[in-house]
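User: Structure tokens for both sequences below?

Assistant:
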Amino acid sequence: MQLEKLERLEPTLAFYMIIAWRVLYLTLLGRECPEMPCDVVFAEKEWQTIYIVAKCKPPPE
């Protein structure tokens, strides 16, 4: 990314802040409701992709 100018930096920071907020929200939600299934928050393709990357094997049915 070329962030030398303010008009390039501001949208990037806003995007990163949204991602950081979602990670924090999911962390707190996981602590409060550890038994909640992941498909409540993630779409099927999202959680399957994360599972494959984290476990290096196909996701369960």
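Moving on to the next sequence.
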Amino acid sequence: MTRNVVISGGGTGIGLATAQTFAADGDRVLLIGRRGDVLERAEVPGALTYAADLADPEAVRGVSGFVGREFGAVDVLVHCAGGNGLLEPPVGGDDPLDAVARDWTVNFRLNVLTAVLLTEALRHRLAVPGGRVLFLSSIAARRGSGRVSYAAAKAGLHPYAHALARELGPHGITVNVVAPGYIEDTAFFGDDGLDEERRARLVAETSDKRAGRPGDVAATLHWLASHGAGHITSQIVQVNGGAERGC
């Protein structure tokens, strides 16, 4: 059965791999992101695209209207939009408190507000029963490692997902979070990627001694959206090769 799948951040990295996985399964896919040119270049057969800043309520209203016209119901909503703020324009001035405020505000907007606004705009369109909502968190949300403002923002998705799972569960809708570890071949670490020393250290932390790939996360998201995962909800699923132990 063909499903309607909406994926934020679907133009690159994990979002793109996820879109390709769902499309290969015969689903109708909508890619959402801030950069229209990136979305247009995404190699996802038959995918629709919509460029929008998901931290802007008015832009999200536009997304909601587009989804209503093109899809009607949403079977799967996947939140891959986000980032650590390193690709955003630098803050002006030298005041350290201004820099801190900007850093935390940017990470909240990129990682929490984008997901919350899109979910709230589309929740009335989720398929009943059988709808799936999936959030992308990070190993940093458990460790508080790396850019702390980013880790805190990703951790903020967890209670929201748990609350949604309780609210939507009686309607047959599941809500889960996937928290990846180090995933190579993404723009998360900037255009130059990681230096070899840090990459080797992150790989050494895993049990399987390899870096994660976008397809690893995409496959997990695809499974959580499947009929077979219908009794799994309100979970934080780690995809990190054992770098962080589950509990």
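User: Anything stand out in the second?

Assistant: The CA atoms of residues 167 and 173 lie 9 Å apart.
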